[in-house]
Design brief:
alpha+beta; elongated; single chain; 6 helices; about 40% helix; 7 strands
Amino acid sequence: MSRRQLRHLGRSDGWVTRAVRAERLLPVFRGVYAVGHGRIGTRGRMMAAVLACGSGTVVSHQSAAALLGLADRAPYCVDVIAAGGRGRKQDGIRVHLVKPPAPEEIGRVAGIPCTSRARTLVDQAAVVGDRALRAGFE
């Protein structure tokens, strides 16, 4: 959950601070928390990265390839395209400063906004080798 979501639910910043101290909320990224325990998995980290970078953020590149089943595993750093480059300089998030995807280039997997298969493969072409890109196409 993001701090913004918690505020929307009526929780104050003081409540969030106390919940973090009591380990009921566990920080994942700046302003984003796991509730109850930290075992959120790969998809949980991806959603946390989207929440940390704000509205309009989508999972992209190698992370989107893993989410879409085009790659065997996701990288440790979550790849995202964030509006206005938000989210930069956060450990565990790699913000790609590329042209934002058009609405038809965005989808969702398990509720996580990500680039479409076609856009993911185009983005992948800039960051992976021929073998990995070919495997994604196949």
